[in-house]
Each structure stands twice: as structure tokens, then as C-alpha cells.
Amino acid sequence: MRKSLVRTGAAALALAMSVTALAACGPGGGEESGEPTEITMLVLGDKPTNGRLEAMLEKLNVRLEEEANAHLDLFYVEWADWQTQYNVQLLSGDDNVDLITTATDWLFAWENAEKGAFLPLSEEMLQENAPKTWDQVDAAGDWDLTKLDDGQIYFIPEDNFTQWTNHGFFYRGDWATEAGFEDGTITKFEDFTTYFEWVKENQPDAYPWDIAGPNDAALTGYLQGHTDGQTIQQVSAGIYFPFQTTESDPYTVSSWYMEGDELLEAAELAKEWNDIGVWREDALNYDGDTREEFFAGLSGADQHHTQTFVGSIVDNMTKKQPGSDPKFFYWGQENGNYFRDILTHGAMAVSANSANPEKALEVYDVLRNDEEAYKLLNFGIEGTDYVMTDDGKLGYPEGYDSSTDALGSNFWGGRMDEFEPDRVTDAPNKQEIYDELDASAKDYEYSTLVVNKDLIDPTLAAMGGVLSEYIPQLQYGKFDDPAAAIDEMRQKLNDAGYEDARAAIQTDMDAWAEERGLE
Amino acid sequence: MATQANVARQVRGGRYEPLPARSRKSLLRRIGDNRTLLLMCLPAIVFFLVFSYAPMPGVWIAFTNFNYRDGIFGSPFVGLRNFEFLIQSGQLWLLTKNTILYNVAFIVLGNILQIALAIMLNEIRSKYFKKISQAAMFLPYFISVVLVGVIAFNLLNYDTGVVNALIEQSGGDPLKIYSMAGLWPIIIILFWLWQSTGYGSIVYFAAIMGIDNSLFEAAAIDGASAWQRIRYIILPSLKPTFIILLLFSLGGIMSGNFGLFWNLVGNNAALFQTTDIIETSVYRMIISQNNFTSSTAVGLYQSLFGFALVMTCNYVVRKINEDYALF
B90-290 adopts what CATH topology? Predict the structure, then answer.
């Protein structure tokens, strides 16, 4: 009796375990009509934990229910290793995400559209579910910026929002003045050697430029200022963009990683900086928050784009490092080789796996065009998250600290100039900076170029593998003999099929140029 | 097990039934006879079906130019093209070499140390000291490799690392350890030994405990020294355990300790030459290059190579002594 009881028990347990294992693979539940539809939007950023986001969403969802009978939730791809996390999330085929923040120049929109992560959006579908958005983008003639060679629209551009996202160094004017720069202003990329040396000698607690993880900022900064190379944003290999044209020969595809001496010059400068100790010796294995180090006075420089500078760096540095006189040196400042923002620096796509693509577009249309919803999503709740000052600027309530109280909704795929007031945290000289940039910026000419990558995808993957091995080491000056390392890298890129890939892109470039009568 | 059950039944039935008896009984009957055993195996069977057999057709990706929209079987077939670059660039050879050499070092050094440790534990007479030292050696096994990676960085980094602080305090020049590829095989092996020796020695310690006490008594009467006891009783008794463990580890010689390698080295390309193993490389290919095809190709190569290796080892062992073979 007892034995059989034990046996039955064991059998039941075994059965229960296998049923649980199987149940984990089952499909999720469906939903009823009439109930508000849950729409999830993927955004980039660290998920805020201060409760403000939830409070805002609660109010926003009341509005969304009225306007579109839907609720919105946000899904965060956090900043740690975001390039890879983003692509993996999209390619995993997760059907819990409906709207996806994307961009052609920094979020691999073309790559992901081609790999099938985005739902192709028909004109009828857009006209029916996002009519206001359709009209505005159509009137501006911007839909062509979002099509692959199948002629389908894959995302909605954030084409009605002015910003500057050209990269450069943020540095401290007070330290630069002491380092001997007139007015504390550095105007040449190489001059940062002098600045970094001064920081190294005179600010023992600070790294001259604390930077971490694999990136190519030091190389790109040099290359942009010393060549007339223009990066083709449609083609990436891993996390790198290896194909360029030049201003002097704008329809010939080449690569600054493969040709010319400038990469070597950049690598030698990086090596000099590494020898000085500009960054942590183990920058490749370090993963701390270097921007906070800059705010804390523990780093002499930081690297990002104009918008970050005018929107956050100036305000934070003025408060946290009084008298630091933050300044911005942008890549290509020496030779005017930098670009106006492209209209797809922010964009919104619908996931190919969305269960409710029409509803997702409806929600997007409200978020982008309904002033009440827009303000809630972007600024939060008036009075607690922001206040409007008497002169019509967006300010913050008393005691508000942007590093802990930020809303963090990060809606970067459909902001609108008409709903964006000036902010009290904007750099006082914001307009001056914009005007200066505007004076000699170039327009990205190839926005409508479509590159067919079907045949060169394995080549690009192989090139990405090679680049991910060499570029970080060149960037941090880790090779004893950069010239030999570059030769080796070029040889390996050739072996990986660089020339085939280049030729394939050239073919598409030729067809594109011919269609437009360009020569 | 099924055979044993059948044999038992035959004996109880009191009549001789020549083998193979299995083929004479219907499959259904045999399932019926062994239903409880099978039910108990069910969780394991389901586990392997879901996680090992069901994903197998996915290796097809290795032969395609994979894109997400067309899916695994709809993407264009490209034959062996994905393998070409891996072979041509020498990457496959480097990964194979690193993976195997690390595993050989782990197996050889690991087993020697584990046996030595087990014997030393056995010789300790103080009960409390024995328990405490055993626990202390066991502990590193439970430390997550993520923490091991952090500990390593704090010991070894150039700017604030403990090792370099000691070198500087004693007047030397700090070492750029995270750029010295030649040093890392030693570092990785040391961390691995530190983590796994205590745990591994338990198996050998248990085997020593299982040795028939009369052997030791006889040895004591014959006046054997401690050393002779170890040499002529303990070591020979550990041989079957050693061989079984060796076989198990040979089967895994193509797989690596991903967590340890990834957390110690990460994305530091300066160290890949000596530290990149198949699993870290596959992970990087998928995660930072979204390269599904090449990573599947490498994974398939790893599986086939590992499979061949296990079969060969088992075959050789069976030839030498059938009792030691795994199957």
C-alpha cells in the first residue's frame, strides 16, 4: 500500500513536471474587442525607477483610451551594450513589442528593415490609421526616405523636429584656458593632446578623457576633420560603418578604413594619447558611466552630439562644476566636414510581429499629433514633472534634480517642433551654436539611396568580425605598431570580401546617381 | 535498465528464454511493463526533446544566407559559403586550438590537483580541521563567474588593481595585464582551478571513502607506510573513477567554460589570440555582429567534432576494457 502510494506520487510528480515544461512553450492569451488594446513601444534608455513614468502613463492612457481605445506601455533597451541589445531584441522576433524606435544612422533601421524586423506599411494603412502623420510627412515629401528597394515604407520619419546630432568633444573651458588656449577654446582635433597633457599633469584625480567600451570616437573624430569622407549610413558591418564617399568624388564608394594614410595618423595620435594616459589603461574592460565622471570633475572630456551639449552638458556642468565653462568641439570643425541632421535620425517602425499593427499606428498618430498626449509623453505631468515659466519656457519645479527625477520616456521617433518650447536648461548660447553649425554644415546627399545587401550580407558580417577586433584596439592605441596592425586589418578585410561588397554598393550607387542625372 | 527488468522477470518465471528477448515482445508491451520507469524518465526526456532535439533542424541556418522574414528554411541556400571565410581567415583553427588546449590543461591539471587534494583531505586526522578546510576549498565553486570577472578586474587592472598597487609599492613598474595576451592562459587556468578544484575533489574523496577498509587493515598489519598505502591502495582504487571522469570531460573537450572566459575577457580584442574559444566567439558573432549564419556554422562544426570525439574515445576505451566504456 505504502509502496504504491509512493509510486503514484512519484509518477504524478513526474507528470506535473513535464506538463509545466510544456506549458512554458504555449501561446499567450488572446484579447476581447471593446477592451482597450495594449500597445508596447520599444524605446532606448535606462528604465526610470522614480515612479514618474508610471504616473504619467496612467494619465496618458486615459487620453489614449478616449482617442484610440488603447493603452501604452514602454519597453526599454537599456544603455549597457545598447547596439547589440537593440539588434538582438528586434531579431528575436518578440511579439510583445508593437512600436519600435529606430533610426537610419545610429539604430540600424535599414539593416533591421531588410532582415524583416519591421512591418512594411502600406499607404492605405497609414492613411487610414495615422492620417495626420501621413499628411504631414507626405506634404514634406519625406516618405521616400523610408523605402527599401521593394518600394515599401518601413518606418515613419521624425522629419518635423530640428536638432543637431553631429558628434564632438565636450571639454572644460577653465582647464583649457589654464592649458594655454586663448579664451579656453580648442579649434583643432590634435590640439587636444596639449589639453589632455595639461589635465594629466595638473588634475591628478581626473582622467583627461574617461571613455569606456568598444567604440571608434577618437578615430572618427580625426578622420572626419582630416578627410572629406562622407559615411554611407545605409551599410553597416557589425556596429561599424565602413563605407564612405568623398566630397570631391561623391559617387565613388570607398572606405577610410581601407584607403589613405589618415587612419594610420589617427591611430598614431590615439597611441600617443594612450601613452600619455588619456583614458584608463583598461578602457576596453571598463564599463562605468563616464558622463557622470565628467559631471563629477573626474574626467576632462566627454564625447557625444550637439543636442546633448546644449540640452544637458551645459546645464549639468554649470551646476555641478561651477566655473567649468563647458565647451564643444565638433568633429569636422576644422574643414567643415559635418552634416545637418538627417530626417531619419529618429523614426518609428511597427514590429513585424505586432498583433495589432493598425492600433499601433493609431496610437502613434495620437502621440505625435495630439498636443495633450504629446506633452504628457514628452514632458510629463505639469506641476510635478515640469512647469511653464512666465516667458513661455519649459522649466522644472523647485527641488527637481534631472539626474534622479527625469521622466525618461525617451520618445525619439516623432517629436514635433510646434509642441517643443525652449527649455530653461538649454545652453544660453544654443541659438549661437546652431547658427554657427548651420553656416557650413553639409546635407547628407544619399538619404534616398537604397542598397541591396542580400548578396553581401555574409561579407559584411565577416568584415564586422574583423573590424570588431582591430578598431577598438586602434581607437585605444593598443597596438605597438599601428602601421603593421592596419596592414593586417586591411588584408583581413580584403580576405573577407571587402572588394565584392564595395563593388555591390557601387552598382547601387551608380544606378541611383544615374536615375537622378548626377555625375 | 529495461534488460535488467526483463531478466528479473525471466528468473521469476522460472523458464529460460534466450536473448534477444526484447525483439520478441511488442513495443507496447515493453512500454507497459516499464511504465513507471518511463514516467520517471519523462521530465528528462521532455527536456532533451525540447532543448536538444527540437532546435536541431535550425542548423540549416549554417547553409543559408539567413534573413528573418524568409525564416530558417525560406532563406536562400548558399552551400558551404559560410564556412569558407571561417576556414580561410584561420579563425576556425585558432578557435579549435584554443578550445582544445584549454580543456586539456583543465583536465590534466584539474584531475591531478583534485586527486592530490582528496588524498590530503583523507590523511587529515582532526575532524574539525578537515571539515573547515573542505568547506573553504568548496566555497569558490559557488561564487558566480560574474563576480569572478569583477574580482579579476579589481585585482589586475592597470590603474587601480591590487596586483599593480603591490608592484608599485615595492618599486616596480605596473603591468598592462589586460594587454598581455601571453599571460592570460595562466590567469584563466588559475581562476578555473581556484573555482573547481575543491568541488572536483569531492568525487575522489568519496571514492576513497568507499575503498574496502580491510585493505587498509591488511596494509597496516604488513607495516605499510602512509606513502605506500597511497601508492598501492588508494591510487589504483581511484582508477575507474578517474577514467569515467576523463571520458566525461573528453566528451566536452570542444565546449568551453563560456561564463568564465566571457567574464574575464569580454570584448577585449587584444586578448582574443590566446583566449578566444568557440563559445565566446559564437556568442560575440551573434550578439555584436548579428551574424546568425557564421555562428551557426561554428556551432555545427563544434557539435560534429565533439560527437566524433566522444564516439572515438568510447570506442578506444571499449577496446581496452569494456567495463569502462560509457555505452
Answer: MetI-like fold (1.10.3720)
